[in-house]
Amino acid sequence: MGQQIHWFPGHMNKALNEVENKVKLVDVIIELFDARAPLSSINENLEKLTVNKKKLIVLTKTDLADPEQNKKWAAHFKEKYDQVLCLDLKKNNAEILLSKAVIELGKDKWAKEMKKGMKPQPIRTMIIGIPNVGKSSLINRLAKRKAAGVQNKPGYTRGEQWIKVNKDFLLLDTPGILPMSYEDHKKAAHLALIGSIREDILPNEQLGEYLLELLKKYYPNSLENRYNVNDISDRLTVLNQIAERRKLVNSVGENDIERAEALLLKEFKDGLLGNITLEWYES
Ligand SMILES: Nc1nc2c(ncn2[C@@H]2O[C@H](COP(=O)(O)OP(=O)(O)O)[C@@H](O)[C@H]2O)c(=O)[nH]1
Ligand SMILES: [Mg+2]
Prior knowledge:
Elements (H helix, E strand, L loop, with lengths): L8 H15 L4 E7 L9 H6 L4 E7 L6 H14 L2 E4 L7 H22 L7 E7 L5 H9 L18 E5 L2 E4 L3 E2 L7 H9 L10 H15 L3 H6 L7 H11 L11 H13 L14
Parallel strand pairs: 1-2, 1-4, 2-3, 4-6, 4-7
Antiparallel strand pairs: 5-6
Helix pairs in contact: 7-10, 9-10
The chain binds guanosine-5'-diphosphate and magnesium ion.
């Protein structure tokens, strides 16, 4: 992947400043990582801004990722951060698990307040994460409101308000959206594959090639299971077989490789190729 990806550092700085201002308001940061690409979900610039805050990591979309890898990543992040939860935001009892973890992390603050003779104040939190990682879904769950604002694009802005999750736990109602640097092409490819950055940042051809390499390495049976593809030797061989199985034909009657590739990328994103983690934990 030698081609240049354009990136505007000004956007990054502006977004980080916004997050930095919100970080000042909270006791605990709830940071979301996509379980399919947890390392690419980390923004190193943000890590620097939040070193002094308690941090709870939530691995989201664990239902789409590889269960074995979920466990390994969770264990890994437990060593690095204050708390880690694995959540399927569509199913889990997210509110209860999250509330428990937040209260655990807020206990130091309560102890300090009581030492000063104060009444313990609710723990203030905010959610941060890359686009599409599940921030709105989680906020809506915690606010117990319908899926307003949940979409595949990064957010809407409103005045900041605190959502009272329960008497001990407040949540800022607007998430911090983390901008990504696309300088690292491998990361950019992972983020495009999971839908966190626009796909057209890289040509479909490269994304397809990249995905197929990963599938070949880690999940060699996934293509046979989904498309009945039995020769996975290279990209065109695979795409030709997918086009044949799905009867994707172009205007001159040939296998439509482009549509086969688009289908592959879409079905991966939708979890139809099985539980797949793109970034494997390496000890
Ligand atoms: N399968 C699955 N989909 C999820 C999960 N969390 C969020 N989504 C979906 O991912 C998409 C983006 O979610 P959203 O909450 O808008 O992400 P945001 O951009 O971080 O606010 C939506 O289509 C959600 O329904 C999850 O844990 N599992
Ligand atoms: Mg959102």
